[in-house]
Structure formats: C-alpha cells, structure tokens
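Input/output pair, single chain:
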Amino acid sequence: MILFKENAYLTDEQIQNWIEEAENAYNQAAKKRAVNTTAFRLSLEEILLRFRELYGTGCRCRLCGTKSFGNIRFEVSQKGPHQNPLDIDQENDLSYDILVRLNMRPNYEYKNGINKVSIPVPLKPRKNALLISIFISVLLALLTWISSSFMPETVRNEYLVPAIANSFTKLSAVFSELATPLVFFAVISGICGIGGVSTFGKLGGSLLKRMTGTYFIAMIAMVVVGLAIGLTPTHAVSEGSNIFSDLLKLVLDIIPSNLVTPFATDNDMQVIVIATFIGIVLLLLGDKVQTFRKFCDETGNIINQMMAFVCKTLPLFVYLGVTNLLLSNMLSQVYLVSRIFVISLVGAAITIGITIARTLYVTKQPFSKLFSAQLPSLLINLTTSSQMSAMPESMKCCKEKWGIDQKFTDFGLPLGVVFYMPNGAIMLGAIVWVLTDISLGAVDILVLFKLVLVSVIIAIAAPPIPGSAFAVLPILFSACGTDLSMMPLAVIIGSTVGYLLPAMNGFCLQLELLMTAQKANLIHKEL
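Output:
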C-alpha cells in the first residue's frame, strides 16, 4: 500500500515539507503502534541533504512511503551516477555516523541508473504478539499431526518424526546453553545493584526484607496448594540415611569444590552459588572493582541480547515441541497439567490476600479506599501485561493519592519492578512441579526443596525480555530432572497464566511500598 509518493526538486523548503508529510503519513499508517518520530525525522532529513549534496537540484528526487505485511518504510530515489549517499568518509564529514547513532538502519541500492535508499521505520510491538504466535504454533502443530496420519508410515516414521525430534533437540540445546550464563550474570548484576539500596540506609533494607518475606509466603502458598490437590512428594530413604541427612547432603552438594567444574558440568545450582558469592564480594569491594563490575554488566548485556534473539524463536520451539509430543504419543497424561492453573492462581490469590491483610493492619485504612487509588494502574497492567506501561499511573498512585515520599517512590518502585516477582515464582514452581510429577511419576522432597529455591532465583534473575522467564526454564528442568520434551507445555501454559502476573505483582508491589512508607513515617498526607 502506497502511503505517500511525490517527485520534487530538493530545495530547503521542499525538504522540510517532505519531512512533515512523511511524518503525518507514518502516524496515520502506524496509528497506536507509532513510536517517537524524532529519529525518523532526523534520518530522513540527513538522507535528503546527502542526496542533494551528491546529485544536486537539477533533477527531481522521489520520496515514497509504503506499508506491506505490517511493515512501514520510506524510499528516497534519484537518477544519477552510482554514488552511495550512506558511504561518507569519517574524516571528511562530521555527520558520517548520524544514521548509525539513530539506529534507523537505512539500506542503499543502485538499479537501472537509479540510486535508492530505503528507511525501515520502527513500530511498537503488537499487544500479546508472543501469546498469539504461540497459540498459532500450537494450531500448526495440531495440523501437522493430523496431516501425518495421511502420510505413508515409512515417510512418517523415517523422515517426519526424526526431523521434528532432532530439530527440537537442537533448539532446546540453544536455550539450555544460554540459560546458565544468563542467570549467572543476572544474579551478579542484581546483587551489585543492591549497592544503591545500601546507600539508601535502613529504609531500603526494610523494603527488601518485606519483599523477601512475600517470596517466603508465596512459596509456602504454592506448596500448600500443591499438597492439597494431591501432589504428594515422596522420599526414598536409603540404608543408614534419613530426610535430615539427605537435606544436609543436598545443601553441601550445591557448594562447589572449585570455580570451574560447575560450568564444565552444567551444574546450575552450583553456578548460582558462585554467582551469589561473586556478587556479594563485588558489593563489599564497591568502587575498587569498577572495571570488573563493568565487565560483568557488559557481558550480561551481550547474553541478554543473545537471549532476546533466541526468544524470538519461541513460537518455532513450541511448534516443534508440541508436534514432537503428538507424534511420539506422549500426551496421554496432559490433562493433568490443569493442576498448574490451580496452583498458580490459588497460590497467587493466597499471596495477594495475605499482602492485603498485612496492608490493612499496618495502614488501618479500608480496602475500598486503597483499591480505588490503584485501579487505574491495575487496569493498565491487565490490558498491557506490562508493569513498565503502568509505571506512570503507579507513580501517581504512590506519590499523589497516597502521599508517599517522592524520593522513596522514585527509588522503591523501579527496584520492585525488577526484584519483586513472587507470583512469577509460584507459576514457575507450579509448572515444573506438575510436569516433573507427570514425567517421573512423583517428586522427591529434596527435588521439591530445590524447586522452591531455584524458582525464586529464576523469577528474580530473569531479565525483562519477552519470553525470558521461559528461556531459563531449562535450569529448573535440569535441577529437578524434568523431561525436557515437556518444555513446550510449560511455555504454552506459562504464556497463558503469565499474562496476569504483571498485574498481580504490580498490585502487591504498591502495597509493599505503602507499608514500608507507613512504618518509616514517609507519608505526607492523610490516606
């Protein structure tokens, strides 16, 4: 679809007119998906000026905007000799890298005597794009499974089944390899980040203690609900041992004997312990190790970006995994996964209920008054499934409606968005508990203990990348001995339940801030 198309001489006035018209065309086509157009305006202006400098004003230039398959791009073209306007020498032109810095990624092409530069314009991600693509993947997997029944048995068993299984295994290995370093650097960065809390004094420590206490409540709620619906853990006592000695052995086993072997053997529990130890040491040394802390931060950013790219393959991962389950007839007990929804939702309800009760006790305010103040941010959280989108309303609730000290809110709310994921820990724990029970027939008490511990660490350490919580699931699967072929089910269920998690966590987070502020006398108005 053509959004805008015009030929003209590149005068100063015409360049400014085109910039305005192109921006309007982009906003009309993108609608709610439009992003800040400053970078686009500057990029388009820079390219038009370069065209004029290289080819002059004696020939008409053309600007065309198009939209196809949901993508928007603008193309500047002009007849002339082969000269790339993007190829500017750094020493001769001070603006040589402006397009790189603006990150617009224009592309040059010379064809039939015409120089063309196309500018892809970014768009906001579609709401629930990942969730929708995952469900489409499930439907495609079902179609593949149905279609396979019409294939000759030889083709199905010797070509289709091995191809799907091998592809799924390879992609699973990619997630597994990236999951360990992702959590390793995330734990280090998270602990080093507590340095800001330490400088804030007792108030920051009090907030962290309150949040940690909610994690403890959440895990108890998860275990209680799981036991109530029949997930009874077992414990095979070997000769000369008991549950306490085995627990002690488990604790000792997660302490590494050296700093290298855990990485070589993919012992994720020991890797997490090493990351915690390194993070605490760096926190204590402070500014003395700024170079190493910067190295950890930059390496962590690289791993995060790698995982962001890999997470884009989650729909393919789900397709291959579900197809593999269907073709291998491993879905005989899949109906049991409904227990994940029960544990996740009931456990979260218990956690939220206890948090509300604690808040009512501390503030001595009616629930209706607290709820009405939070309602705008809660609705944004529910509709967007993003605490970042609801941040302005959450700030407004804490500062203006509740009167919490501005400095404390500016510090505590962003900290909580990263650190405070108790309901996410419940969901991750429930997923792996139920799927381990299905794949192994029962869950050992020691496995349950590890599951609870690692669920909390994973929930805190997973970066804010869509799908990253599921990308680090291999660590939980590895710790608990869960069949990796069950991971697609974990992603599907987690995507469904996970849509509600930002709203649940955000609602409780504001109450945690309110309780901490009330205890510290940091509320500057009557609630």
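The mean pLDDT is 81. The first strand starts at residue 2 and ends at 8.
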